[in-house]
Amino acid sequence: MSLYEASFRVKHECPYREISERYPDLTIREWYLNDCQVIEITAPGSPTEDLLEEIDELGTVLHESIDESGLHVVTQSCLCSLEDSIIERFESYNSLYQPPTIHRQGWEHYTVIAFDEGDVRDLLQDLEADRDIEVLSKTAITEQRIPHSMLAPVDQLFEAVTERQLAALRLALESGYYEQPRKTSLRELADRTSVARSTYEEHLRKAENKLLTNAGQFLRLVTATSTADPLDVEGRRRNEQPAD
Q: What's residue 133's pLDDT?
C-alpha cells in the first residue's frame, strides 16, 4: 500500500500569517495542544519594538531570548475555534495533518498524508474554492519508514474515553495487568475500587476499545509501507524452501 504526501501553502485570515507578511524575515511555527496553541517565533537580527508589542498580544510568553542568532520566542495562546477550520477539512478527507503549521512571508505551510491519492486531490480542490493555495509537492511514499517526528495528538487518541474508563485503564496499567505474566487479575483490580467486577471490566474494555479505535489511523500509517506480513509464517516458509 502506498501513502500520499502533499505539501502546500495557503492564504486566509489569520493573525500569525498576517504578522509573517508584515515581517518577512520571521518564521512562525504553530502547534495545537489540546485547548491551546504553542507558537515558536524566530527571526534573524534584533526585533523592532513594534514586533515585540505584536508578539506580546498573541498570548502568554513562555520563553524569550535575543542573541547573535536573532530572536527566539515561544508563546502559548488560547485555541481559536476549530469549527470549519482547515484542520477539520483535512480530517473530512481522511488526511492526516503533520504539525507544525509554518507561517512565512504571508503564507501558511501545511503537510498532510493520506492513504488515497483521490482524497488528497479532493482536499486540494476544496481548499482552492475559497482561498489562495499553491501546491508545493505531491509525492507517493513507498517502502520507507514514517518519520518519528510525526506525533499523534494525545487528545485525539483519548477522544470519547470517559473519566471512569481512563481511571480503570490507569489502574490496570499501573498494577501490572498488561505485563507478561500478569501481576494482577480483574477481580483484584475491581476489589480496589468501589464498583463491581463486571462494572470495572466494562469500563476497562470500553477504554481499550476506544483507545485502539482512535489509534487505528496511526496504526495503519505505521504499517502501510510494509512490504511483507510479519504474521505470514507460511509465506516465509515457502520463500525459505530451496528451489528445485
A: 93
What is the per-residue pLDDT for 83? Answer: 44
High-pLDDT (> 70) share of the chain, %: 78
- pLDDT band at 105; cut points 50, 70, 90: very high
Decide if 127 contacts 6 (C-beta within 8 A): no
Position 66 scores a pLDDT of 87
Write down the pTM of the prediction. 0.59
Longest CA–CA span in the chain (Å) reads 80
C-alpha cell of 137?
Answer: 509537492
Report the DSSP beta bridge partners of residue 103: 28, 108
Q: Which three cell numbers stand for residue 140?
A: 507517493
Amino acid identity of residue 216, one-letter, is: G
Q: What pLDDT was estimated at residue 149?
A: 47
Is residue 204 a contact partner of residue 172, using CB atoms and an 8 Å limit? yes
What is the C-alpha to C-alpha distance for residues 65 and 74, in angstroms, rounded to an integer? 9
Closest alpha carbon to 30 in 123, 85, 108, 83: 108
